Inverse folding.
């Protein structure tokens, strides 16, 4: 991939990466609230949802930065 290909990639936008993390975290929150009655389990799952939000966004950002770096160094031969 070239740098021009990566600029049009959806993960180039930080907001998209954040929304992916938010959607996965929201899924965990919904499952915790609807299916578990134990407050300790709910609190643990809510904590995991926050962690998932942060880590997913961070890892997707790292992966996209690495792809940009590799595309810049790619000679095409």
């Amino acid at each position: 991939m070239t740098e021009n290909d990566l600029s049009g990639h959806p993960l180039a936008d930080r907001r998209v990466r954040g929304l992916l993390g938010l959607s996965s975290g929201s899924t965990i929150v919904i499952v915790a609230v609807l299916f578990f009655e134990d407050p300790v389990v709910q609190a643990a799952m809510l904590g995991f949802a926050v962690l998932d939000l942060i880590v997913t966004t961070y890892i997707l950002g790292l992966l996209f930065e690495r792809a940009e770096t590799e595309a810049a160094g790619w000679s095409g031969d």
Q: What stands out?
A: The mean pLDDT is 86. The longest helix spans residues 39-73.
